[in-house]
Amino acid sequence: MQAPGKRNDSTLNSGERVRQEGPQQAATLRVQHAAEPLPASGVVVFDMMLRPIASDTGAVAILRHEGGDAGDSNPRLTLPQEVLDAISSRPTADTTCLTVSVTVGTQAYRCRCYVVSPAPSAPRLAVHVVHFEADAANSDPIHRIASAYKLTEREEEALRGIAVGLTTKELAERMKISPNTVKAFVHLIMIKLGVATRTGIIAKLLDNNQIGR
């Protein structure tokens, strides 16, 4: 057993080591499999040494995916490196909420990190509470490609119709515009995406793994 106060390294996930102090070796929270796809939110609690204490099923699914343990019957909870960096760089006396944007798999999350203690008189009992919440804008696949290729809002609306197979007439009815205006939007989308046909638009979306929601 290590003497109190002696520093030791504990592995939170493979290839990622967190410096810690104290006699105990960092514990790894072992959990049951969680269902796919990745959930919209999750909460996990770590002690001040970044040792996992508790988690809801949402965080289990998110963090086991981040750690590459999706096929493991006892996956480890793995914080994204961006979250670890933010927590590690926080001054000891700073207890304000940190907000970090992370991507797990193809899902974008807004991650809020809190330092919580039962009372000001008991700072040694403080814990890190990390809340993951899906970032709706960044998680929207069509919105992502529309942003990447600088489509306007109306062009993005037309792109959504194309992605689900709407005809020019159907898209005109949905957007409350004429079929000729739809054709103009589609032509602009083709130019921006660098393709020549509707089929080319779909191929571009598929190439970027944008269809599937």
What would you say this structure looks like, in words?
This protein is of the alpha+beta class. It has two domains: 7-135, Beta-Lactamase (2-Layer Sandwich), CATH 3.30.450; 141-207, Winged helix-like DNA-binding domain superfamily/Winged helix DNA-binding domain (Arc Repressor Mutant, subunit A). The protein is built from eight helices and seven strands, in the order ββββααβββαααααα. The strands form two sheets. Strands 4-3-7-6-5 form a five-stranded antiparallel β-sheet. Strands 1-2 form a two-stranded antiparallel ribbon. A hairpin with a 2-residue loop joins strand 5 and strand 6. Helix 5 (153-163) crosses helix 7. The chain is elongated and about 70 Å long. The model is unreliable at 1-35 (pLDDT under 50).
In short:
This protein is α+β, with helices and mostly antiparallel strands. It has helices spanning about 55-65, 80-90, 135-140, 140-150, 155-165, 170-175, 180-195, 200-205, and strands at about 5-15, 15-20, 40-45, 50-55, 100-105, 105-115, 125-135.
What brief labels describe this structure?
about 210 residues; alpha+beta; Beta-Lactamase; Arc Repressor Mutant, subunit A; 2 domains; five-stranded antiparallel β-sheet; two-stranded antiparallel sheet; 8 helices; 7 strands; about 35% helix
Chart the SSEs and their pairings.
Blueprint: E1 7-13, E2 16-21, E3 41-47, E4 52-55, H1 57-66, H2 81-89, E5 98-104, E6 107-116, E7 127-134, H3 136-139, H4 141-148, H5 153-163, H6 168-175, H7 179-193, H8 198-207
Antiparallel strand pairs: 1-2, 3-4, 3-7, 5-6, 6-7
Helix pairs in contact: 5-7, 6-7, 7-8
